[in-house]
Design goal:
Number of strands: 0
Helix content: over 70%
Strand content: under 5%
Number of helices: 2
Distance between the termini: 22 Å
Radius of gyration: 11 Å
Number of domains: 1
Shape: rod-shaped
Order of helices and strands: HH
Largest sheet: none
Length: 32
């Protein structure tokens, strides 16, 4: 989340970073 706020100026990079973080968390929850 901090990375998303830090790269707030760059929309595409922030979106990719946030999307990747969300996917990692969702995949981690799926495993558990």
């Amino acid at each position: 989340m901090a990375t998303f706020l830090f790269y707030r100026e760059n929309t595409i990079e922030s979106f990719i970073s946030f999307l990747g973080y969300f996917v990692h968390v969702f995949y981690f929850m799926l495993i558990i």
